[in-house]
Amino acid sequence: MRIVVNAAAASSGGALTILKSFYGSVIQNYSKEVEWIFLVSDNYIEEQENVKTLVLKDIKKSWLNRLKFDFIVGKKLVNELRPDLIFSLQNTKIYGVKTEQIIYLHQPIPYQNIKKFSFFKKEERILAIYQKVIGKLIDSSLLNSKLIIVQTQWMRNAVNEKLKINIDKILVYPPDTTILTKKISGNFQNNLFFYPASKIIYKNHQIIYKAVEILNSKGYSDFKVFLTIEDNLRHPNISFIGNLKHEKVIDYFTYSTLIFPSYIETFGLPLKEAKDVGTIILASDTSFSQEILEGYENAHFFGFNNANELANLMEKVIIKEINLQEFTNVTEKKESNNSWQEIIKLLHNTAK
């Protein structure tokens, strides 16, 4: 049995993380019955006894090259490999192949209805391309795939609503997580806030800046917000600490409140991680945050574009009107799920 994994465009960020995570699970779930061929753009993974790689370096150089591969070049290459199944980790299918394809969808921009991005605004142009151009290519791929895998129920519903695809074709597998959980009441500081996110418009850092100014206008100055970006802004209540290793992010969760104003996410991993650690979370009131934080007593929500609501919640944390709810579990443990393992089983069964 031969399965081709299409990750030819993965070169950074979440796409590369997904590739490496899936590859790791393939290695852990070794089977002599399956030969895996990964299409990658660089030497991101190592070949193993049952894992081969085809490095296609030109694909990551431009979107034009990516489209040429999806529509023209890819079909010849893949058809010559004669796979039993193709698993795409990059939201789109390869056109013109004879084999059934399963698509792992992790691009939410075309399926959210909170924000319409504009081609005429420089800072939104690339997001508008994802929403209105690439989104149509993703739509076409999903409509012509065997199955679609998403990370959340909200994405399942959004794809179904937009494309009218049979809901049974859209499967939900939350991403694998390995979280160090512990009771944090002894370390928690009510005047420290933390937001781990990259500098993208929909991550919505601006609302934090506005909320800080509102708190200052009310006379609050003894608090600090830590942001994992670089910025020339200088403010006594904001620290720009740059990118952090994952272990350090988890450490911040153990003694500070997570602010999460992002309004577009497939899953929103920091929400899950902070929930597992047990800290207070101030999150945008969105479909993904409500789903991930359902039933969590330390979660509080604000309108993603309402700085006053966020400032009011931050104020309540500072004055201890919002208190950390204690966990009964005081031991440290590793928690993990096995969604990749379940997906691998699905791929095996489909390829047979």
Automatic annotation (TrEMBL):
InterPro entries: Glyco_trans_1
UniProt-listed Gene3D superfamilies: Glycogen Phosphorylase B
Alphabetical GO biological process terms: lipopolysaccharide biosynthetic process
A GO term for molecular function: glycosyltransferase activity
Record Pfam families: Glycos_transf_1
Keywords of the record: Transferase
Domain (Glycosyl transferase family): residue spans on this chain: 229-328
Organism superkingdom: Bacteria
UniProt protein name: Glycosyltransferase
Organism: Psychrobacillus glaciei
